Every structure is written in C-alpha cells, then in structure tokens.
C-alpha cells in the first residue's frame, strides 16, 4: 500500500445495504467464504490517493451519489461498517470510487455502444448529496457500468 494511500473495502448485502470498512480496527477480520451469504458482493480493497476528497457510489439502476470522504468516520471499536448508499436487492451497488474533482463514468449509450463521460463542476454537483442517500440518475447513459477517478 502506498504511504499516501488509505485502504477500504466495500460490501453489499440486502440486510445491511452498501457498507464500507476501513479494515484498521483490530476486530475486523475477513469472514470465511462459507459464512458470507451467496447474495453478498464484496468489492476489491482499493487504495486511494491523498488528494482524493470525495466518494462516488453507483447503483445498478444508474443512480450516482457523490459525497465528501470526511463523512466516512473511523469507528473506534470496529463497528459493522458504514452505509454508503441507499440501495435495495433490485438495484444493488455496483461500483465505488474515490476522486478529487473529476469523475469518469463508463457505460453504454444508444445502440449499446460503449461510452465514457467525465463529470466535473456543475455536472458533478447534480449528484452531490449526503452519505446513505439514494443519489440521482445519470441521464446520458442507457446503462452505467463503472465509476473511477479521472
């Protein structure tokens, strides 16, 4: 892990919704594969740059939520994680990314053609909100697939 980076893991389960875990607590352990429900999705542990100040969450139905990284507080005794976005079983969380001021959204447009769009400024501000909210739909895509720092 780079010295300037922090690590986190994101997970989606229907009971808890989308949650994030910093893994810095002494109580946090990776559960055995047999104990994780078959419908749970675990995202890869990611390193984020020190300049990243925001978190982007993308739901399967095309909703995007952007909130400040400062809203993710470290829980003193480990806790059970933090809710990132209000999602349900029909529209689970499909991507989480940290970024500074520009976000790259990938998906498909009309005619199922691959498309990427960089969101910044006013376009990005439309999706800003508080952690654990629903977010707003990205209108320029038929289907969204991923978000990443631009």
Would you identify the regions where 5 or more consecutive residues have pLDDT less than 50?
25-39
- Alpha carbon gap, first and last residue: 21 Å
| Apparent shape | globular
Helix run count: 1
Q: What name does the CATH topology carry?
A: Neuraminidase
Could you explain how this protein is built, in words?
With 150 residues, the protein is mainly β. The protein has a single domain, classed as DNA gyrase/topoisomerase IV, subunit A, C-terminal (Neuraminidase). It has one helix at 121-125; strands at 6-13, 17-21, 41-42, 46-48, 54-59, 63-68, 82-83, 93-99, 102-108, 114-120, 136-137, 143-149. The strands form three sheets. Strands 1, 2, 3, 4 and 7 form a five-stranded antiparallel β-sheet that branches. Strands 8-5-6-11 form a four-stranded antiparallel β-sheet, with no helix packed on it. Strands 10-9-12 form a three-stranded antiparallel β-sheet. Strand 9 and strand 10 form a beta hairpin. The relative contact order is 0.23.
């Amino acid at each position: 892990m780079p010295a300037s980076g922090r690590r986190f893991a994101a997970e989606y389960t229907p009971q808890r919704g989308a949650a994030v875990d910093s893994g810095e607590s002494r109580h946090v352990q990776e559960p055995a594969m047999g104990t994780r429900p078959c419908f749970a999705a675990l995202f890869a542990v990611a390193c984020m740059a020190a300049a990243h100040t925001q978190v982007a969450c993308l739901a399967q139905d095309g909703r995007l939520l952007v909130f400040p990284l400062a809203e993710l507080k470290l829980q003193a005794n480990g806790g059970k994680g933090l809710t990132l976005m209000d999602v349900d079983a029909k529209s689970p969380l499909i991507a989480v990314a940290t970024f500074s001021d520009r976000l790259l959204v990938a998906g498909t447009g009309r005619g199922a053609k691959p498309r990427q769009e960089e969101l910044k400024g006013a376009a990005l501000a439309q999706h800003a909100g508080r952690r654990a909210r629903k977010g707003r739909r990205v209108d320029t895509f038929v289907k969204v697939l991923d978000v990443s720092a631009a």
